[in-house]
Predict the structure.
Amino acid sequence: MQFIYPSFLYALGILALPIIIHLFYFRRFKTVYFTNVKFLKEVKEETNSRQKLKNFLVLLMRLLAIAALVFAFAQPFIPVKDAQVKKGEKNISVFVDNSFSMNALSSDVPLLEKAKSNARNIISAYGVEDHFQILTNDFEGRHQRLLSQEDAISLIDEIKPTPSVRNLSQVLNRQTQTLNAQNASEKIAYVVSDFQKNITNLEAFVDTSIDVSLLPMQSVQEKNVSIDSAWFVSPIQLMNQVNPMMVKVRNYSDESVDNVRLSLKLDRQTKPVGTISIPANSTVTDTVNISVLQKGWHEGELNITDYPIQFDDTYFFTFNVANEINILIINSSQTNKYLEAVFSGVPYFKIKNENSQNIEYAAFPNYQLIILNDLASISSGLSSELAQYVQNGGNLLIFPSANASVNNYNPFLESIAINELKSFEAVERKVSKVNTEEFVFNDVFERNGRAMKLPVTQGNFNLSNFTSRGEEPILKYRDGSTYLGKYVLGAGRVYLCAAPLDKEKNDLVQSGEIFVPMLYKMAIFASKNQKVAYFIGKDEQIEIANKASENELVYKFKGEKDEFIPEQKNIGSKMLLGINNQIKEAGFYDLILGDSEIQNKFAFNYDRKESDLKYFNANDIKEQLGAKMSLLDANENTDLKAMVGERSRGKVLWKWFVIAALIFLALEGLILRLFK
């Protein structure tokens, strides 16, 4: 047995007072006259003997009562597993995992409700003089300070499920920061969680100044099916056409799942897609065909039926069908009728021809594709603007003139990091290979092996072959050299043809099955096309084209229930929007500039990190425990409050000594009353 306040034991010295009083207490006798004193001596002897016994018992009860009270004030305890109990105030932090995985059931009760109940018991096991932190995955400001016992229990009652997910090392670091903010004799952290494998990284926490106790919560079942992701096959969605979307559905359980219903809700109209069977611990990718009948923004929603974990059964997405695709053709003198004929046949494409001597540089960001046709030279101003255009996500197609000045062209080509022009050779060469793996031709031909009319050139430039330029050949000559190559620069793409587009030098315009789809695919390719969906807590920064003027600089997100102003960082023609954990619910959010119309639509989904319901069991957790960590081995029948109390203060005995003191005082009263 040990004592928290052993100095109180000096008070045992007061036991001498009742002994002294007892020894020196002389009772005054009253004279009584008797008529017959024959038996007086015998009665006196018998009375003295009984009186001494009574006084001795009273003295003993008083001594025991005083000793019990002294021991009670010294707060005796029996240490548990050599625990060292410290006196004084304590700082206690309790983390309650309120992520979506805690909605799993345990005996028909969500794990979160059991976790909240356990947190209350932990708080109640300490004294009212201690300070407490209640922490959740939200990391809210009110969770970063120490509270009284009553306020801490009230805050536990307010905890609700959240889409936010934190690794346990992040949680422990945040607990450490709060506990160290105020001096206390003891600093203790509790983690109440289901300890999913994808968030449990206890080995990453190295601080040993905090006593950490882990309380695992285990669900009854570990089954879940989730829509993992979805994406369009083509980066651009076209009106009055079928736009295939790929949907990946994942089964996280160890059993196969059959007949999972998949449905699509597009612009508030729902239609069934079909059913999916998914093997155990695997994914299945299905195709959903989406037909678009009107231009503008569209909101889509994919759904499956799964219970009880439902936060990942819905996948929101948005996409925009542009009113038109703008194409700029920069010519040296006259326009090219073949280029105009290709695009003028489809109203969706809008072309504009400009002379190289009179170019509106400010309009470059409005074009999806810029074509340099038959330019003999490129000015420094045009060179600079084209480089910035490509860096920001534009597509550039170059057909050099047969009379092009190599010395003028190559500085521009070098500035955009693509292969350079060498000498022009007026010899016949034939294209023999088409790269059908690249986006330009990857879905153009039904049978790649059939005979096609490929271009033949009567003159072309030899191209340098620097491996550092990252060229991807799209069309090749028979000798293996490049006829048409693709290069990546920043967010954009550059296509360089080794031959002029002049019909006398290059019959590409007569190869309709190559020329037409090549231009179409280059025009619709959008390397920086907006993602169809984002994830809450993961995608915290969004890049958009900046359309704000000097007098109108405020963008805001507006959802179904709330709206907020994101952090805004202007970078030239781009704007970076910081979400900063302001989106809490999955759904659609409109981006509005000032009081104008909707600029963009965004779809936010809950993070799928919580979908995998695989947990560490108690043995697995023990392997990850650090020197200052311990595991609370508790079940439904465990008195958690008593367990925590014993772990933090040992087996407390002061209450028993108080009870003993009361018993001794009661016995003293009985002796005085009944001992005649």
